[in-house]
Amino acid sequence: MKSVNPKGQKTLIEDVLDQGICVKCGACVGLCPYFSYRDGQVVALDACAAETWRCLQVCPRADYEGTSLEREIKDTRGDREIGPYSEIRAARAKDRKTRNGGQYGGIVSALLIRALEKGFIKSAVVTDSGNGLSPSGKLVRSPSEILECAGSRYSASGCLAALNTAISAGEDHIGVVGLPCQMEALAKTAGSTPDGEERIRRVTVRIGLFCTWALDYRKLRTYLKEKNIRGPVKKYDIPPPPSEVFRLLTDDGWSDFPLGEIRFLVQKGCSLCSDMTAEWADISVGTLEGQDDWNTVVVRTERGAEFFHEAVHAGFVEAEELPGKNLDHLEEAAANKRARAGAARQERTDQRT
After folding, report:
1. Please, are residues 55 and 62 in contact by the beta-carbon 8 Å criterion?
2. Sign of the C-alpha dihedral, residues 149, 155, 161, 163?
3. How far apart, in whole angstroms, are the C-alpha atoms of residue 353 and residue 338?
4. Residues whose CB is less than 8 angstroms from the CB of residue 263 and which lie 6 or more positions away in sequence, other chains included
5. What is the pLDDT of residues 211-243, one digit of tens each?
């Protein structure tokens, strides 16, 4: 690299990339021309002398002093371990094809398809299947493209790189589907970068996905090769407890692997994440424990409520009350992740001092 003084980029490289805690959200890729995402890795291509430090400001794993998101969300969370929300429902896509093609109830696909048809959004950033490489972000513009990308990957995708590319190309009215770290990156974009508010105005709705952790795709690929899984994976799944298995579907059918082995493939940076339910999203979506063809939907903002209620009223989505025991389990799981993250962050702090 050239001998310049890229303090923002240098800090990001030393504190995040070199420490192995990058979660491959893609927020810096395309925002800065000197970062790239390729097959599951974020890499610095050259030194950057920009004084705006946008890459550092948007990173969900960087302790950048200009952000105070954790304090802000804590102020509104109160006693709710899953963060602020206006309502929480059990929901699923009315259309069986949409439901079967998605993960559990297919609610994300249904909401995006309805938003496209109504003109609420013109496009959406989702995660593709990778086609032999790691999953990555993709800008989609049609129901068929949405359904092609349906389903959970359980690994990092760098999908915000696709959002940055779309914004640079002048796109607006964009829907974004992402993990909690990616929703946090969007919140940091709005709150701290010089052009952040303008960039976020291009995003119409943020749909967050529940996430306990994400896998390092390269490690996963090596693991599956060792297990003689050669063909393309059509679907991944982690059934609710007490199953303790990681499942994947190929042309040969379903294969199950011990979840204890899979946990060794989790990204190091995921241990520092305290958010299980995508608290910075407009709508958060996850599984509904005990009901395979339904989702849990957390409506957090006025924008999220508008999208969700319109889809319900139009018959794209059916919704019911969330059973109390499911909410209790969700709150418990979210609290456990927050506690684990707090301990991991404290350990890092102790190591630095």
Report:
1. no
2. positive
3. 23
4. 213
5. 999 999 999 999 999 999 877 888 888 887 778
Whether pTM > 0.90 for this model: the answer is yes
The answer to whether the Cα torsion of 139, 16, 80, 106 is positive or negative is: positive
Do residues 185 and 59 lie in contact, with contact meaning Cβ atoms separated by under 8 Å?
A: yes
Taking alpha carbons only, the member of 87, 104, 146 closest to residue 312 is: 87
DSSP per residue, 60-94? TTS--TT--HHHHHHHHHTT-TT---SEEEEEEES
CB 187 within 8 A of CB 262: no
Task: Report CA torsion sign: 315, 88, 128, 102.
Answer: negative
252, amino acid identity: D
Residue pair 217/202 in contact (Cβ under 8 Å)? The answer is no
With tokens 């190091």, the residue in question is 268
Q: How far is CA 27 from each of CA 5, 120, 243, 279, 313, rounded to the nearest angstrom? A: 22, 24, 34, 17, 34
Contact 132, 123 (CB under 8 A): no
* pLDDT band, very low/low/confident/very high, at 79 (cuts 50, 70, 90): low
